[in-house]
């Protein structure tokens, strides 16, 4: 018998293939509201679906527009679930996190889902989106009184660029906690400490690691 995640995955594949965005959103929301899956579990399933779509595109089995359409539907589902985040969030932990990607990195959907995980853990969460210049990030960190920053890279090329970005950020704000993540760190993170690479499973306990 398929699990709730497998059932949702299969249904979303069918809805996306039928170009039924509204139907895809409705079934995802119903799954959360029924308690069959919580929001992190839905996000895990959506991340897997994104990976499947990307692999299909790389194999030449999916057109570019189809990959973009599927990604847009998944983003809509994530946004539609956001009002439920506040309903299920833990008590506030008096910690603030800012999330962004460095210049020329435009993949921020995974980061969007990570932002919800921090919100569920009680953090004040500010998602600044893709391709943010360092000067703007520093201004946001100061204005928002951030305790931590999460940055994401999708490819090895963007991970190399992220290294300089992070080094400059740490030099400018040495007290700031910085975590990195994204597809570029999925298999290894040579050149990065274990403490810096974000493990999403540990997010509920991270507030205690930030002074």
Identify low-pLDDT runs: none
**Alpha carbon gap, first and last residue:** 46 Å
Instruction: Please identify, by name, the CATH architecture of the largest domain.
Output: 3-Layer(aba) Sandwich
CATH topology of the largest domain: Rossmann fold
Shape: globular
User: Over the alpha carbons, how many angstroms does the gyration radius reach?
Assistant: 17 Å
Give the domain tally: 2
User: What share of the residues lie within helices?
Assistant: 40-55%
Query: How do the SSEs run, as a string of H and E?
Result: HHHHEHEHEHE
Question: What average pLDDT do the residues reach?
Answer: 93
**CATH H-level superfamily of the largest domain:** Cobalamin-binding domain
Describe the structure.
This protein is of the alpha/beta class. The protein has 2 domains: 4-88, Methyltransferase, Methionine Synthase (B12-binding Domains), Chain A, domain 1, CATH 1.10.1240; 96-209, 3-Layer(aba) Sandwich (Rossmann fold), CATH 3.40.50.280. It is 53% helix and 10% strand. It is built from 7 helices and 4 strands. The protein has a 4-stranded parallel sheet with strand order 2-1-3-4, sandwiched between helices. Helix 1 packs antiparallel against helix 2 (21-33), helix 2 runs parallel beside helix 4 and helix 3 (39-58) runs antiparallel to helix 5 (109-120). The protein starts with a helix and ends in a 30-residue tail after the last strand.
